[in-house]
Write a structure and sequence with these properties.
The chain is α/β, with parallel strands linked by helices. The protein has two domains: about 200 residues, Alpha-Beta Complex (Quinone Oxidoreductase, Chain A, domain 1); about 140 residues, Rossmann fold (3-Layer(aba) Sandwich). The chain is built from 13 helices and 18 strands. Strands 3, 5, 6, 9, 10, 17 and 18 form a seven-stranded mixed β-sheet that branches. Helix 9 links the parallel strand 14 and strand 15. Helix 5 packs across helix 6 and helix 5 packs across helix 11. The chain is globular and about 65 Å long. The two termini are about 40 Å apart. The structure holds nicotinamide-adenine-dinucleotide and zinc ion.
Amino acid sequence: MTTGTMNALRKVRAAKGLEIAEVPVPAVGARDVLVRVSAASICGTDLHIYGWDRWSQGRIKPPVTLGHEFCGVVEQVGEEVTAVKPGDFVSAEMHVNCGHCRQCRLGEAHICQNLKIIGIDQDGAFAELVKIPASNIWKLDAAIPERYGAILDPLGNAVHAVLAGPIAGQTVLVTGSGPIGLMAIAVAKACGSSTVFATETNPQRRAMALQMGADVAIDPANEGAVARILRDTGGTGVDALLEMSGNATAIQQGFSALRAGGRASLLGIPTENVPLDLVKDVIFKGATVQGIYGRRMYETWVQMTALLKAGRLNLEPLFGEQAPLEKFEDAFAKLQHGWAGKILLHPNASIAERTQIANEMKE
Ligand code: NAD
Ligand code: ZN
C-alpha cells in the first residue's frame, strides 16, 4: 500500500497564485484507483484558478490540488476494483457524475445535476499520485504516446463538438484557435470535413491553426473576415460552426458565417451575456444550436481512442514545452501569454530528469 506524503501543486489560499505543498497520499476506498501521474497538462481553467478570477472565487474551496488533464500508471486499486490492475497505463474522465439524477438515468451523464470535477472540486492530478473512482478510469492502449494520454480531456471536448453533428464533406468554421480549437481543426479534418476556416486574434495561433490542418486562418479584426468565408463557400456560409473562443465577437461572426440550415456547436464559455440576433441568425436560418459540455461518457472516449489508434490525429504542433512541477510559474506565464500550445508537467520526474526538462524549457 502506498502511504506517506507527496508533492502537489495546490491552491492553498483564497488569493492569486499556487503553491507546491507536501500533502498525505490519498487514502484509497474500495472502488477507488490510485494513479501515479506520468504527465499532466495545464488547462485554461487552471490559469483562471491561478489568477483567482470571479468564477474561481465562487467555485474553488481551498486548499485543493489542481490538475484535471493527465495520464499515469495504476499504483494501487481498492478491493472491489476489477477493471484495472497495478501497472496499467490509464487516463480518466475527471467529471464525476452521480448516477441517479434524471440526466444520468437518461444516459446524459456529462450534464449530470450533481457533477463534481476532480482537480477543481476535489484533489486533482498536479501531484505525484491522484485518486480516481474506478468507474471514471479510462484504460489506454500502450500505443498511445504519453503526451497524447495527458491531453485526452480537452481532446475529448474537441471530439465531442466536432462529432455532435454531420462533419464528413462539410465546410467548417472554428472560431478561436486556443488548444481546444486547434484540436477541433485536426479532428474535423481527420473526420473528412472539406474546407476548415479558423478565426483567431493571436497571429502565432493562426499559424498553428494552419499547421493543425486549417485551410484558411483569418484575423477576426479584419473587416472582411465574414465576407471572405461567405465568398469561399459560394455565398452560402459554412455548414458547421464550432465555437471555441467564448468571445462575443467571435460568436456573432460565427453565426453570420453560418449557412441557413447549418449547425452551431458552442463550447467556448463567455464571461458575459452575448447579444445575438436570434431572428436573423437562428430562427430564419433554421439553424441548429447546441451547447457542448465536457465529454459524453463514454461515447466520446471510445471515438477519441479510435481516432488516435487509427493514427488519424497529428497533434504534434501542440506540444514542445514540458516542465517539472516546481517550474509551474514559468509554464503558467507562457500559457497566459498564448506563447505555448499545451505544457506538460511531470510530477514524478527524477532529479536528473527535472534538470533536463527545465533546461529544455524555451525562454
Ligand atoms: P483559450 O482561451 O486558450 O482559447 C480561446 C482562443 O480564442 C484564444 O486563442 C483567443 O486568442 C481566441 N479569441 C479571442 N477572441 C477571438 C475572436 N474575436 N475571434 C477568434 N478567436 C478569438 O481556451 P481553450 O483552452 O482552447 O478553450 C476554449 C474555450 O472553451 C474557452 O472559452 C474555455 O473556457 C472553454 N471550455 C469549455 C469546455 C466545455 O466543456 N464547454 C471545456 C473546456 C474549455
Ligand atoms: Zn447525475
